[in-house]
Design a protein that fits this description.
alpha/beta; seven-stranded mixed beta sheet; 13 helices; binds pyridoxal-5'-phosphate
Length: 389
């Protein structure tokens, strides 16, 4: 009887409509408009071999299935797989590789991704070369006969350097590589890599997709049949699934993704412009500023420039002082929540990256990073102004 209530998404539904409705339908047993948290480990079968498509909670869960369908549509992919964290999602992608394979990775990749590749996966006869993927000729030079994957983060964390997604995907096609894009920083509101030819998109849903700093999770959105089949198998085999409650939280988060991201974009642009004129700030890194070396590329492949800003205050002491003096902004790891967070990447998010590597990629000790929230931007400017004073 609830069938008539099911929201039928128009085939050309716009982004915010997709965020709100994709993958969700009124609960078949009650009509509840919000997908319930199916907090169950198993499902009763009518008789041997007869069930409703759900056998065991690691393998199938309706709340997780709803968020997976939701995220797959949001990214424009064919299937989504939700994992216990962003790192578990990246770990699952790595299982597409076989011993002896080589991967080219954006040199300024998230520190945890570098750690997984460098300290864990390199023990399994996989090799990784870190390249400035904003210069694709360097990627081409790094390709060997065993290269199978190009793993790109754009914009990068925290340097905010961009990779040309269209050109990267052309290159990947030419050399028969899988193009994987970690789209955590931009969010699908600002950038949809599959439209440019990416094969796999991954997110730490912990960040913008959930958006409220109250869940840890990850997702892989896939486009190719063989990857979909394998990821489904690996999700069940390794078992690093997203819990029903976290699935529900992410679903709630994506309902407001479009409105949150629009405000993150406005606030970050406002703060970046303020910082750029501040005498104590040496440099501001934000793709929305004309001074950003890849501003034109950002305009081409991004709908908005995101909520992340990095700025250089000249010395490590000055960076520590800003982080200490802010009052409204919270000194904390992570990003993508509604509240503004400030951090010192070299000592916090990127402490696992050796100092020489950090310096080589421009991640200096005097760099401060802000995940700009959706507070009133005037309050954020006042807070930064007093901290810089
Ligand atoms: C770009 C990026 N990818 C992946 C991750 C890992 O996500 P999680 O912390 O959910 O494991 C992070 C975490 O900060 C990140 O910033």
């Amino acid at each position: 009887m609830y069938r008539s209530w099911i929201v039928k998404l128009p085939s050309r539904a716009r982004f915010s409509t997709v965020c709100l409705h994709a993958g969700q339908e009124p609960d078949p047993s009650t009509g509840a408009i919000v997908t319930p948290i199916y907090q169950t480990s198993t499902y009763v079968q009518e008789e041997l071999g007869r069930h409703k498509g759900y056998e065991y909670g690691r393998t199938q869960n309706p709340t997780r299935l709803a968020v997976e369908r939701n995220l797959a549509e949001i990214e424009g992919g064919r299937a989504g797989f939700a994992f216990a964290s962003g790192m578990a999602a990246i770990g699952a992608i790595a299982t597409l590789l076989r011993s002896g394979d080589h991967v080219i990775v954006s040199e300024n990749v998230y520190g945890g991704t570098f750690r997984l590749f460098d300290k864990v996966l390199s023990r399994y006869q996989l090799s990784f070369t870190y390249v400035d993927t904003s210069a694709l000729d360097r990627v081409e030079d790094a390709i060997t006969p065993s290269t199978r994957m190009l793993f790109v983060e754009t914009p990068t964390n925290p340097i905010l350097s961009l990779t040309d997604l269209r050109a990267a995907s052309d290159l990947a096609r030419r050399h028969d590589l899988r193009l994987v894009v970690d789209n955590t920083f931009a969010s699908p509101y600002n950038q949809r890599p599959i439209e440019y030819g990416a094969d796999l998109v991954t997110h730490s849903t912990t960040k913008y997709l959930n958006g409220h700093s109250d869940s840890i999770g990850g997702v892989v959105v896939a486009t190719r049949d063989e990857d979909i089949e394998w990821l489904q198998f690996i999700q069940n085999s390794q078992g690093a699934i997203l819990s029903p409650f976290d699935s529900w939280l992410v679903l709630r988060g994506t309902k407001t993704l479009a409105v949150r991201m629009a405000q993150h974009n406005i606030n970050a642009q406002t703060l970046a412009e303020f910082l750029e004129t501040h005498p104590k700030v040496k440099q501001v890194l934000y793709p929305g500023l004309p001074s950003h070396p890849q501003h034109e590329l950002a305009k081409r492949q991004m709908r908005g420039f995101g909520g992340m800003i990095a700025f250089d205050v000249g010395t490590m002491e000055a960076a520590y002082s800003v982080c200490k003096r802010v009052r409204l902004m919270a000194l904390a790891e992570s990003l993508g929540g509604v509240e503004t967070l400030i951090g010192h990447p070299a000592a916090m998010t990127h402490a696992s990256v050796p100092k020489e590597r950090r310096e080589a990629i421009g991640l200096t000790d005097s760099l401060v990073r802000i995940s700009v929230g959706i507070e009133d931007p005037a309050d954020l400017i006042e807070d930064l102004a007093q901290a810089l004073r």
